[in-house]
Specification:
The chain has 154 residues and is mainly α. It has helices spanning 2-47, 52-88, 93-123, 127-152. Helices cover 91% and strands 0% of the residues. Helix 2 (52-88) packs antiparallel against helix 3 (93-123).
Length: 154
């Protein structure tokens, strides 16, 4: 009896520990991503040789669009959860069409937000800085894709 109790209590402790640890891991990953993003922005400011006032303006543009996109992400999550629920129940075509329309509209706004941010950032740079910026963004996207492919093949 004592052996079964020890096993059960050990298993319970392991499960509870894992449940407590998982949100912390997600937070740590989010924090490290945020820190990496800040470092990349700071590196860009240095590489592009932006003046302090241009750097402030550059970062303000990014912050403004990031806030807007965060709101869009929250709306998209809510709409997608509603769509998931609607699809699991007896499908109501009108409700599903409304959700699909809302999701597509928010996806379009998300894409437009990225385009607007890029347009605003490029507008404050010289042509040489614009070229450097576009090449740096491309290099970062390639690195992210390579990292994704490595993770995918593990």
């Amino acid at each position: 009896m004592k052996g079964k109790f020890s096993f059960k209590s050990g298993a319970l402790c392991a499960i509870l520990s894992a449940m407590l640890l998982i949100p912390a891991l997600g937070q740590a990953q989010e924090d490290s991503w945020t820190e990496m993003h800040k470092m990349r922005r700071a590196t860009l400011v240095q590489e592009l040789k932006l003046s302090p006032e241009k750097a402030k303006e550059f970062n303000a543009v990014e912050a403004k669009h990031a806030r807007d996109r965060q709101e869009l992400v929250e709306r998209l999550k809510k709409s997608q959860a509603e769509l998931q629920t609607a699809m699991a129940a007896a499908p109501d075509a009108a409700k599903i069409q409304g959700l699909v329309t809302a999701i597509r509209a928010d996806q379009d706004k998300m894409a437009q937000s990225f385009k607007s941010q890029l347009d605003e950032e490029l507008a404050m740079m010289t042509p040489v800085q614009q070229g450097q910026y576009l090449l740096t963004l491309h290099k970062w996207r390639e690195a992210m894709m390579e990292e994704y492919m490595k993770m995918k093949h593990k």
